[in-house]
Design goal:
single chain; 205 residues; alpha/beta; Rossmann fold; two-stranded antiparallel ribbon; 8 helices; 14% strand; HAD_sf; phosphoglycolate phosphatase activity
């Protein structure tokens, strides 16, 4: 078993996709007069906010639209839930004295208002958000930073995520990767070797 297991949030710990995309859809419509079907926004999952808006020709270097997007997500909080099997898996990893961490493209504020609100924050020894790095995912910096502060070699770490950005981040950090198939899109499966179909697969890996 790995000494350190690092989790992404959206699509891995929490099923947030519908709420996130509805929030983006509403933000684009209200503030930029851009109407987009929900199915055409799935590319934005796991992507940094400024890159998402850049896709629509919107310069959000100051993060104004991103903050509005995040605000709208709260309107769809009922669409967010913890994936089945996550809590018992975290309990078991803690029992085995495995260090637990989060690497996310969310801001610290978003982390505080999502993970903490679902009562999961006490499981994690280390949390690295987009506010804590110069180069977020898919750059390897978030994983390398966690391994450094946890004093764990990259060869003893496992990163669990659900997007192409997560896969590239782990690959470039030389950290083992497991694709969370319960939250990932099928096209990601061909990009990596380790497919986890339920959270407990982390224990058996």
């Amino acid at each position: 078993m790995h000494k350190l297991v690092i989790f992404d949030i959206d699509g891995t710990l929490l099923d947030t996709e519908v709420a996130v995309l509805k929030g983006l859809q509403k933000c684009l419509a209200i503030h930029h007069n851009i109407e987009v079907d929900l199915k055409d926004l799935t590319f934005a999952v796991g992507m940094a906010g400024d890159e998402v808006f850049s896709h629509f020709g919107v310069d959000d270097s100051k993060g104004i639209s991103y903050k509005k997007w995040i605000g709208y997500i709260d309107n769809f909080r009922n669409d967010i839930h913890i994936f089945d099997g996550i809590v018992p898996t975290l309990d078991k990893l803690q029992e085995e004295n495995v260090k637990l961490a989060i690497a996310t493209s969310k801001t610290r504020f978003e982390y505080d208002t999502t993970v903490e609100s679902f009562g999961l924050n006490h499981y994690f020894d280390y949390v690295v958000t987009i506010d804590d790095v110069k180069k977020p995912k898919p750059n390897p910096e978030p994983l390398l930073k966690i391994c450094s502060i946890a004093n764990v070699d990259v060869s003893d770490a496992l990163f669990l995520g659900d997007t192409e950005f997560d896969i590239k981040c782990a690959h470039d950090a030389h950290v083992d990767f497991g694709l969370a198939m319960w939250g990932a899109h099928e096209e990601c499966a061909k990009l990596c070797d380790n497919h986890f179909y339920k959270p407990w697969d982390v224990i058996d890996f």
